[in-house]
Amino acid sequence: MKTQKTNYTVIGAGHGGKAMAAHLALMGFPVTLFNRTDENIRVIRQRGGIELESYDGGPSGFGKIRHVTSDLGEALEKAQVVMVVVPSSAHADIARLAAPHLRDGQVVVLHPGRTCGAIEVRKVLDESDCKADIALAEAETFIYASRSDGPAQAHIFRIKDTVPVAALPAPLTPRVLEALAPAYPQFIDGTSVLHTGLNNMGAIFHPALILLNMGRIESTGGEFEFYIDGVTPSVGRVLEVLDRERVTVAASLGIRAQTGLEWLKRAYDASGADLNEAIHNQEGYYGIKAPKTLNHRYIFEDVPMSLVPMASLGQAYGVSVRGMDSIIRLACFVHRTDYWRKGRTVDRLGLQSLSVGELTRYVMEGTRD
Fold this sequence. Notes:
- This protein has two domains: 8-190, NAD(P)-binding Rossmann-like Domain (Rossmann fold), CATH 3.40.50.720; 201-365, N-(1-d-carboxylethyl)-l-norvaline Dehydrogenase, domain 2, CATH 1.10.1040.10.
- The strands form two sheets. Strands 5-2-1-6-7-8-11-12 form an eight-stranded mixed sheet.
- The protein is of the alpha/beta class.
- The protein has helices at residues 15-26, 42-47, 72-77, 91-98, 117-127, 173-180, 193-198, 202-212, 214-220, 233-252, 260-268, 275-280, 297-300, 302-316, 322-335, 339-342, 356-365, and strands spanning 8-11, 31-34, 49-54, 61-64, 67-69, 81-84, 107-110, 135-139, 144-150, 153-159, 163-168, 187-189.
- It has 17 helices and twelve strands.
- Helix 8 (202-212) runs antiparallel to helix 10 and helix 10 (233-252) packs across helix 14.
């Protein structure tokens, strides 16, 4: 008897969403693609799918998309697994829009959650009186390195070998992994959403690196190698301070987070005496140009949705986060805004009254009493 394949809905038609939708379609899964701006998916609808190319013999071909829509109710109607592939700054809005349409049994995964993404989405769903019994989870990082080559084209450079995923609460993680396994055996148990969120290395590498190179970015339009020319011994020392603070914040919550050096070794088999050396020993960083402008997601997404929640957790539980705070404030100056006010603070996430034990119980058991 032929096994029926899982119905996937991919929310977001940026470079990541298009790559994921096309890859799922090429694997034979029925795929619905949703995007809030209909104009951005018009060509995909007209062509009936997305042309995908990959390096090194990866998935390539025309991925036929079953349904393309800007109506979220339509997009969620037949979905069994919902893959949310939008900037983390849009997670709350998507949760608000989805709340009336979610139904029992669906699996919803944020790709990635950044830091406290699932906690924010759960709070919004509760405030929206969403009663659907869903399994909500987040990935530690995005499984693809990808780009968009056109309105109905996507390119995958690399698919990561392993990506931790955790559900909120944690006992739902096996259910999520079971649902994802036929398409993505790369996903592994990430323990809890605090583990996935506090192992978010983009929070450490992206904002500091772009801000410490802001003069060079503005004067050259990003015409230099971001990780190679942009990381010098002094910049590396700043990254190490931020990384130590992140690991200490995690430790204050009883979590043994991997260090930046450990992450580079695990993800890329790159090692060195310090972060500066290890980054320069990562061959994949060579050739990656810097952002052309400071109006970039490395600031407007990674600061409020990754760095602010880490620093806010540190402040709440007695950890000095002066390094993180300095980068956040520098971003506020450059963008003339208040990322502390806009970001995922413990107050905005509804965690301000929880002790460490209560927060741990919430992510592990789902109870806040």
